[in-house]
Amino acid sequence: MTITTAGLAQITTDVAVAAGPEAVADADVVMFALRGNGHRAAMDAVAPYLRADQSVIISSQASLGGLYLARMLAARGIRPLIACWATTVTGGPMADGKVRIGMLRNMLEVATIPADRADEGVALSAALFGDRFGVCPNLFAISLSNLNPPFHMANALLNFTRIENAEDWSNYGGITAAVGQLVEELDAERLALADRMGVTVRTALEHYRKSHDDLPDTDSVHELAQAIAARRKGTSPGPRDVSTRFITEDVPFGIAFIVALGKLAGVPTPVHSAGLILCNAIYGRDFVAENDLLAGLDLENDSLKSLSEQVLNGFGAEDATSSQILDAHL
């Protein structure tokens, strides 16, 4: 198939379409570039055909999905490099048959399974997508570095009638002072959970500054969002359909994940939990149940120390030692 892009990157290229999952056996690098809702199905399909000498990139990491894949591959006795990104390199909607690239991130962080191969993950990512990647210490840090869920849920909930009525509105412009305040409250819970897990992650403000150049000196999410909105000049519209990934992907695979990990770690997440309850009520759905990666990992029956060892070493690692992440916190 032929893919054509427009905007910040203008490319036309032919991409081979695999006849089935077995085709991944012929690739040097296998990349998961789909919404979180499809990660488990895709991983289940290709896991029997992956090779030990391959590399895997997950763009982007959702709900410790890299660990889910590592466990399946360990059952086959193989441990390929699994590189997990915090978010995507770029993004944009389809329009007139073209992918409209409105954003290219300045920097992305990469964590790997096992954690001590992070340098390899960064080198691989840079070779494919340019010098824009940095080392993230482990999968906890990368999973807690994804800022899409709090930004998207807050913006979608407080602008929901716009989405429901299919109105034209600005994604960044819709982050009013109230939406920004909700993002900051969600951010505080995420940062507290990261601290409990013994990792350091960027704040929402730092995320904006890493992703966009020359932003104003302010400690307000709202003010930074408005500056980005003015710069983007309508190129980043808000969602216009209730099936938006802002809710259907980011709530089960982002918000529900934070709530589940918070329960395991003993860290309260009342704002995340409230948002999850509201989304369930609005949609008449159980977004926790829709996270099939969490079901596959079975966190409820795991211990925090055991999970940390898996994050460091992957599954089936005979040299697994006591956690280097959580010793000071347990």
Automatic annotation (TrEMBL):
InterPro entries: 6-PGluconate_DH-like_C_sf, 6PGD_dom2, NAD(P)-bd_dom_sf, Opine/Lysopine_DH, Opine_DH. Residues 136-282 form the Opine dehydrogenase domain. Transmembrane segments: none annotated. It comes from the Bacteria. PANTHER family: BLR6086 PROTEIN, OPINE DEHYDROGENASE DOMAIN-CONTAINING PROTEIN. This is NAD/NADP octopine/nopaline dehydrogenase family protein. The lineage of its organism: Bacteria, Pseudomonadati, Pseudomonadota, Alphaproteobacteria, Rhodobacterales.
